[in-house]
Amino acid sequence: MYFRNVCLSLALIGLTSSASAGLIIETDAQNRTIISWTGSCSDCLGTKGDNSFSDPIDVSGNIVVDGFTDGQDFRFNSSNLYSFQYDGPSNHVDNLIIYNAGYSSDDAWIDSSDALYSIIGRTEYSTPITGAVPPEGYYAEFGENLTVSGKITGNLESYFLSISFDTYVPVNPLTGEYIKMSTLVNTGEEALLTLIKFDLEFFDDGTWYIRANDEAYDIGRNAQLSIAQVSEPATFGIFLLSLVAFSRARRAK
Fold it and tell me: Which of 59, 203, 217, 231 has the fewest CB neighbours in a 10 Å radius?
């Protein structure tokens, strides 16, 4: 997990909603293509884990890949997926952007969860949540070495995507469940950060989910691809100055 602008971008749990992806015909100099998606989520604004779809909502996001050619089958892997973005809304997980630290050896993102673990030597620690991040428009922004697999058919009628990684996120000390960072920012409250494994799965039949430690947080269906032009939203970092100071103190010892 990368601390961009000295920020702990966190929380990637609850990303499971039904996604409808829109393919962007927009590449940069490195041949990256933005694949936007939208879909319906059963539990995003309701009870976590409810898969009844009695009151679904629309959610969206995008996937940035390298080497995609319109009309040809494409396979996702750990070296061609640059980032994954989730725009929510969700009561269970922050809006987030996951950058793939394994995308390129020249990439600015690093696997910060590994770096932090090497400093503190344990899977959990407590720290005050400080900073000045507005809840509106907030994105948890971080980078991890991702395990990635999947495919898109050339006719864009179906795709499968599986992303796994671990990162430090705030948890409830009694239940061990993930807490949205945006609810803690600016409070100065002390939070327990724990190294948790996340899985994001989008299946060929259109169903999808986001899990943390094998527990589903957002559950969706009706995932599909379409060609659309979208723009990436502005992102905000969370400044955990106490964590940075702690890291520096450890290095000084």
Answer: 231
